[in-house]
From TrEMBL:
NCBIfam families: PRK04968.1 (NF003439). InterPro entries: Syd, Syd_sf. It comes from Thalassotalea piscium. HAMAP family: Syd. It is a peripheral membrane protein. Belongs to the Syd family. GO terms for cellular component: cytoplasmic side of plasma membrane. Interacts with the SecY protein in vivo. May bind preferentially to an uncomplexed state of SecY, thus functioning either as a chelating agent for excess SecY in the cell or as a regulatory factor that negatively controls the translocase function. Signal peptide: none annotated. This is Protein Syd. Keywords: Cell inner membrane, Cell membrane, Membrane. The lineage of its organism: Bacteria, Pseudomonadati, Pseudomonadota, Gammaproteobacteria, Alteromonadales. It is found in: Cell inner membrane.
Length: 190
């Protein structure tokens, strides 16, 4: 069963990120121009190096059925919903535990790549005889990711190749509601 609260929280957070970005830098979020990586998120060209972009609601029917069938596993509905609600570049955020970047598919083509990465992650978990998790964010420490426990949908910090070790929230919706947007100003023109 789909969690409409999660979809609403994701969309609201993405819009709050855009507003924070515009308030701090006086323009829409930027992404490097890459003709090989088109997306419905792209709004316009900002300069020779960057395009402006906005999160875009997924209007096509994206599904993890192929992943579930290939791995003979049923993914938690929050995992499926998280990755099929919006197309977006990664979105930087802060939580009480530090900085992170929420990962999303940039386009339908990127969604296929994301599915391959999730398959690889689950196969690694099985090989290590660990419970199944699915990543959805990276942290400011490259050795740790944020993941969703496939059994109950809880949100955890886990070291790469390790069991989750620190529970952050009982659900993804609860976790998203705790976040505040973070606008990184390092690489982008002001």
């Amino acid at each position: 069963m789909l969690n409409s609260g999660l979809s609403s929280s994701l969309w609201l957070f993405s819009q709050n990120y855009v507003e924070a970005y515009k308030n701090q830098l006086n323009h829409l979020p930027l992404v490097e121009i890459d003709e090989q990586w088109p997306s419905s998120c792209i709004v316009s060209q900002f300069d020779e190096q960057f395009n402006t972009w906005l999160p875009h609601k997924v209007e096509s029917t994206l599904s993890f059925e192929n992943v579930e069938k290939a791995l003979d596993v049923e993914l938690h509905t929050d995992i499926c919903q998280y990755f099929t609600t919006i197309f977006s570049d990664s979105i930087a955020a802060n939580c009480e535990h530090g900085e992170l970047s929420l990962l999303f598919a940039w386009s339908e083509e990127d969604f296929a790549r994301l599915q391959e990465n999730i398959i690889g992650h689950i196969l690694m978990k099985r090989k290590l005889k660990q419970k199944i998790t699915v990543f959805f964010a990276i942290t400011d420490d490259e050795n740790f990711i944020l993941s969703i426990d496939n059994a109950d949908g809880s949100v955890w910090v886990e070291g790469i190749g390790c069991e989750p070790h620190k529970k952050l929230a009982d659900s993804l919706n609860e976790f998203i509601q705790q976040l505040t947007p973070f606008v990184y100003q390092g690489d982008h023109p002001k």
